[in-house]
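Hi V.,

You were right to ask for the full record rather than a summary. Here it is.
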Amino acid sequence: MQTITPFLWFDNNLEEAINFYAATFKDAKITNISRQGPEGPAFFANFEIQGQEFMGLNGGPMYKFTEAVSFFISCDTQEEVDYLWEQLTVGGEIQQCGWLKDKFGLSWQVIPKLLMTLMSDGNPAKAQAVMGAMMQMKKIESSVLQAAYDGA
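Predicted structure:
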């Protein structure tokens, strides 16, 4: 049973955001929307992404998301990295080392599992080569990481 749920404050675009996440993540779902009146805008909502429950609030412009909090997506394949990177960067901001901000200002890290595997190698030279390759990237490319590892 999940006991901690991220609660996200949106700038009056909650419904747009949760619909975007539901369309972007293959197993996402919106579980509840509470409205301000029968036909009014969403006030708060519950939704899930990859089994993680979230709550969102249409709170207005007084608080903004920052990079101090991000959501780490551990991807099985480069194809998954490519798809999520392409979707989440639309209208957003590309950053360094697999980080991005989506069009709502929420920070994500789109990372292939291979990165953690290669960085955990007991050979410090190989791990350092992988780190050096990653530091040069925006979107993480598994083939570049593997080449750095193999060449060390």
